[in-house]
Request: fold
Amino acid sequence: MINRKRDQLHETQQRLLELLKQNIDDPLTIRELQEELELSSSSVVQHHIQQLEKRGYLRRNPSNPKDYQVLAESPDKPVAYINLYGLAHCGPKGSVLNGDPIDRVPMATKLLGFPSEEAFMVKAKGDSMEDQIKEGDLVFARKASDADSGTIVVCVNNGEVLIKKLQKGSQVILVSLNPKYEHILASNDFRIEGIVKGIYSYPQNGQ
Reply:
């Protein structure tokens, strides 16, 4: 089947998109892209990259131009509906992502920084991650099964869905940001569901 949306791209943009996909693990510089595409200047490359971003085929980290994601063959929609789950006991082999979402939250995909199909949200409960995450906050995460030490993750431990800071060493420790809570040793069923990417906080007590 012909991807008509893809065919609407300028020929140079199609070639640029293919180059970016082929070199995603070792991104080319703007100068290297210019040479590969045989373009007259680096500003022309920048123009076509900006057009790919604008049309939803490419997403870049604004603080690191070489950090980018090529999206699906067709562009991500401007707004995606992200599944929102509650933090609940899910059983010894359960996953927060296996349950029914309690809501679907519209979000501008340009705010995510990664493909919307990899996103999910959870509603925080308790005060163990204050001051960074408060009860009732909506926390959005990117699906993942592993994460670096020091990363805040949505995880399952002893059948319970938690938001914790990961501390890796001889043992995996789940750290609460609120100092009144003790750290938790990862159990046999511990697994990471996703990496926290953002928090939507709501004013407390009408403030």
